[in-house]
Amino acid sequence: MRLITLALAALLLLIQYPLWLGKGGWLRVADYEAQVEAAHKKNAELIARNAKLDSEVRDLKDGTGAVEERARYELSMIKQNEIFIQIVGKGQATAAPAAATAAPLH
């Protein structure tokens, strides 16, 4: 009787192996679920980034305000007959005036 009990317990453990550690086992499924969750998070971040870029592209194509803003802040351009005033704080070093080197913005 004891031999039968041990044999049945061994068979039960052998049957449980694929359930826990096999190709479609619970541990692997949990790992796949974590990977899917990470992929969903990454996709959400990329969708938000793409929406921001799409909005910026549409703004650059349709309006001149975004182009003018970029020209002012990134290229230090000014409009014709416009005066550029830069206020420098005490701790900041003084640089060459941007108005003297900036190209006019038409």
From TrEMBL:
GO biological processes: FtsZ-dependent cytokinesis
Function: Essential cell division protein. May link together the upstream cell division proteins, which are predominantly cytoplasmic, with the downstream cell division proteins, which are predominantly periplasmic.
Organism: Rugamonas brunnea
Coiled coil: 29-56
GO CC entries: cell division site; cell septum; plasma membrane
Keywords assigned by UniProt, alphabetized: Cell cycle, Cell division, Cell inner membrane, Cell membrane, Coiled coil, Membrane, Transmembrane, Transmembrane helix
Cytoplasmic side of membrane: 1-3
Intervals, Periplasmic compartment: 22-106
PANTHER family assigned: CELL DIVISION PROTEIN FTSB
Top-level lineage group: Bacteria
Stated name of the protein: Cell division protein FtsB
Family membership noted in the UniProt record: Belongs to the FtsB family.
Alphabetical list of Pfam families matching this protein: DivIC
InterPro entries, per database record: Cell_div_FtsB, FtsL/DivIC
Protein topology in the membrane: Single-pass type II membrane protein
Subcellular localization(s) per the UniProt record: Cell inner membrane
Known partners and oligomeric status: Part of a complex composed of FtsB, FtsL and FtsQ.
Gene (UniProt): ftsB
